[in-house]
């Protein structure tokens, strides 16, 4: 059994979210987000075919302080909208905007699962509302995808059949698929800002 630190551990959930996305044939900008218990971290990623060619870290904001579904949805919508503004400044970003959200929550059927314990489970029945609010604020169609934060971080592991443990406000774990997704290529000239 080998123990190793994944590349870029501080941004693992966001980088992994970008890497998990099925590749398209053309350049694509996307927003990647890490909804944690202490903060919401955002980035803009650029893909070309199967390669991740750019990754720009954006502002961090506090996690929702209130626990009502409306407060959580409002905080998340504002954070995603700010990140989407950055994605709109790049070429090839005028079509539908893809937003991949790594979330500190169980995920079921593509949405945070409401287990009654975490901050983001209350979004389980609000994904459509969240997507519509983001579409209205950006003026474009939005594709909104959720992935468990440990599962997202596992996409950065350098070997298949590996487990990844993340430590933030809480602990999470994820497993890299046995068969590597097509999107695990980092361009040799990858820029990170």
The tally of helices reads 4
Look at the structure and give the mean pLDDT. 79
As a percent range, the share of helical residues equals 10-25%
Radius of gyration: 16 Å
| Spatial sequence of strands, sheet with the most strands | 7-4-1-2-3-10
What is the rounded distance between the termini?
Answer: 34 Å
Biggest sheet overview: 6 strands, mixed
> Count the strands?
10
Global geometry: globular
Structural class: alpha/beta
Taken in chain order, the helices and strands follow as: HEEEHEEEHEHEEE
Tell me what you see in this structure.
The chain is an alpha/beta fold and 193 residues long. It starts with 11 loop residues before the first helix and ends with a strand. 24% of the residues lie in helices and 34% in strands. It is globular and about 45 Å long. Helix 2 runs parallel beside helix 3. It has 4 helices and 10 strands; from the N terminus they run H-E-E-E-H-E-E-E-H-E-H-E-E-E. The longest helix has 19 residues. A 6-stranded mixed β-sheet has the order 7-4-1-2-3-10, with helices on both faces.
């Amino acid at each position: 059994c080998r123990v190793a630190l994944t590349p870029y551990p501080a941004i693992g959930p966001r980088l992994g979210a970008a890497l998990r996305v099925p590749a398209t044939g053309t350049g694509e900008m996307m927003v990647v987000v890490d909804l944690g218990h202490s903060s919401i971290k955002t980035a803009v990623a650029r893909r070309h075919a199967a390669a991740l060619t750019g990754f720009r870290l954006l502002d961090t904001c506090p996690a929702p302080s209130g626990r009502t579904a409306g407060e959580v949805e409002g905080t998340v919508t504002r954070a995603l909208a700010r990140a989407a503004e950055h994605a709109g400044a790049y070429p090839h970003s005028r079509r539908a905007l893809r937003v991949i959200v790594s979330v500190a929550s169980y995920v079921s059927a593509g949405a945070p699962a409401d287990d009654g314990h975490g901050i983001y489970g209350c979004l389980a029945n609000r994904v459509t509302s969240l997507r519509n609010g983001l579409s209205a604020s950006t003026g474009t169609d939005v594709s909104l995808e959720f992935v468990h934060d440990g599962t997202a971080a596992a996409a950065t592991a350098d070997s298949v059949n590996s487990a990844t443990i993340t430590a933030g406000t809480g602990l999470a774990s994820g497993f890299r698929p046995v068969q590597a997704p097509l999107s695990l290529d980092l361009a040799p000239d990858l820029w990170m800002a």
